[in-house]
């Protein structure tokens, strides 16, 4: 997926982070053929609602796509896909991390993490629970050190992934961690992780640990789902 830069915009106009996410998401759909050449995109109202952004943000994204000759906008008729490629089967340039938007990352996490947590609740040993408790204690001790918080967060999820007893699932989740490090999601997280939000995250990790420790599968899965919903809102609603 081609990454969006400020060079795609007129001089003096910067590209907001949410606009960037919408541009990358729509570009990926167009390149994947979800919106074929000559097809009409869903209405602005429908697309904005689906992506959880304002119509002004969506229009800014469509402006970028039009400048990149991905779509043509017709007043009163909508936006039409004009993208064509003679190399649709060729591999996309760059690493997976470079081609993954924060929204892509969250979508994959929303698929993997609930099942990962469910299996971990059933399979985690007392020794692993003790290790997880130590990680939670380290998380709760963080005040403003974003690097330490991120390291603890990664260790927490790695511990959960190992407890699934599924090597393939563990490897898949390790890839999501690597992608997170490579993509601009890391930079966004640094902006979002205020001391107050760190405290909110600490409460969530504590609640998730308690659900895992008491073998409450439904509660643990519900907590991780709500956490992912909140993260998605955080990214989509931040310009």
Describe the structure.
The protein has about 240 residues and is mostly helical. It folds into two domains: about 5-80, Arc Repressor Mutant, subunit A; about 95-235, Four Helix Bundle (Hemerythrin (Met), subunit A) (Up-down Bundle). Helix content is about 65%, strand content about 5%. The protein is built from eleven helices and two strands. It has helices at about 15-30, 45-50, 55-65, 95-100, 100-125, 125-140, 145-165, 165-180, 185-190, 195-215, 215-235; strands at about 70-75, 80. Strands 1-2 form a two-stranded antiparallel ribbon. Strand 1 and strand 2 (about 80) form a beta hairpin. Helix 2 crosses helix 3 (about 55-65). The longest helix has 22 residues, at about 100-125. The protein is elongated, with a radius of gyration of 20 Å. The two termini are about 20 Å apart. Residues about 5-15 and about 85-90 have low confidence and may be disordered.
Keywords summarizing the entry:
single chain; 239 residues; mainly alpha; Arc Repressor Mutant, subunit A; Four Helix Bundle (Hemerythrin (Met), subunit A); 2 domains; 3% strand
Gist?
The protein has helices at residues 17-31, 44-51, 55-67, 96-99, 102-123, 126-141, 146-163, 167-182, 185-192, 195-213, 217-236, and strands at 71-74, 78-81.
């Amino acid at each position: 997926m081609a990454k969006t830069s400020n060079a795609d915009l007129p001089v003096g106009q910067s590209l907001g982070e949410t606009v960037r996410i919408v541009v990358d998401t729509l570009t990926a759909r167009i390149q994947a053929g979800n919106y074929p050449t000559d097809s009409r995109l869903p209405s602005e109202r429908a697309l904005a609602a689906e992506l959880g952004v304002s119509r002004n943000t969506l229009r800014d994204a469509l402006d970028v796509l039009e400048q990149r000759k991905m779509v043509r906008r017709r007043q009163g008729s909508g936006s039409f896909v004009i993208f064509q490629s003679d190399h649709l089967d060729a591999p996309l340039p760059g690493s997976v991390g470079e081609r993954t938007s924060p929204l892509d990352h969250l979508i994959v996490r929303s698929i993997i993490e609930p099942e990962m947590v469910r299996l971990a609740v059933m399979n985690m040993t007392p020794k692993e629970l003790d290790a997880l408790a130590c990680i939670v204690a380290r998380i709760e001790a963080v005040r403003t050190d974003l690097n330490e918080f991120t390291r603890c967060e990664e260790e927490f999820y790695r511990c959960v992934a190992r407890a699934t007893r599924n090597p393939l699932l563990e490897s898949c989740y390790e890839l999501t961690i690597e992608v997170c490090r490579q993509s601009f999601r890391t930079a966004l997280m640094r902006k979002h992780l205020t001391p107050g939000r760190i405290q909110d995250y600490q409460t969530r990790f504590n609640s998730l640990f308690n659900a895992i420790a008491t073998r409450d599968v439904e509660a643990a899965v519900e907590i991780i789902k709500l956490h992912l919903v909140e993260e998605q809102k955080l990214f989509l609603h931040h310009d």
